[in-house]
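Supplementary Methods. Inverse-folding protocol.

Structures were first reduced to a discrete structure-token string of length 178. This string, shown here, constituted the complete conditioning input.
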């Protein structure tokens, strides 16, 4: 279930998607496609994520002065930690997108080779929702619904846009800019 994956993603602070990719890499290998998803890339991203979480935990321990002075004077250690957090977050995002698109390629190739269907998994939704969308498509393939219109991702995408718009509106309103 995609909903269960979302809950696991949140509970594990982003670690579960990497476990999902590691588990799926073995399944993708058994599809016999030319494209492959190795175990190495998800493991590397997992290490980067653990470093990022460690830096986020360590950073508040470096704050010794009151918050007013903190924002004016960052120590060298704090700057290094903040740069480390930003770098690991960027790498985590980049490699997560790469993992999603490699997996998408494997699934697309498998659908074509095994079922003769030329319908491709959406690159747009793969970019936006990553492994959650891929699991949605895997579920559709297992139910032989891959050629039917995709409604779920569009509904969720529109809901996310509405929530983001509402958050921006209320945030601006809260600041008194409207």
């Amino acid at each position: 279930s995609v909903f269960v994956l979302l809950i696991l993603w949140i509970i594990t602070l982003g670690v579960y998607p990497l476990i999902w990719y590691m588990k799926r890499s073995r399944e993708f290998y058994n599809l016999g496609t030319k494209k492959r998803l190795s175990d190495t890339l998800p493991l590397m991203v997992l290490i980067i994520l653990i470093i990022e979480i460690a830096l986020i935990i360590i950073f508040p321990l470096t704050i010794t002065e009151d918050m007013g002075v903190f924002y004016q004077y960052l120590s060298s250690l704090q700057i290094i930690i903040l740069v480390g957090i930003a770098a690991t977050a960027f790498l985590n995002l980049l490699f997560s997108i790469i993992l999603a698109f490699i997996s998408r390629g494997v699934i697309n190739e498998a659908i074509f080779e095994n079922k003769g269907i030329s319908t491709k998994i959406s690159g747009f939704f793969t970019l936006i929702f990553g492994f959650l969308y891929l699991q949605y498509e895997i579920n559709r393939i297992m139910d032989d619904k891959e050629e039917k219109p995709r409604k779920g991702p569009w509904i969720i995408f529109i809901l996310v846009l509405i929530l983001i718009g509402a958050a921006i509106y209320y945030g601006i309103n809260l600041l008194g800019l409207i």
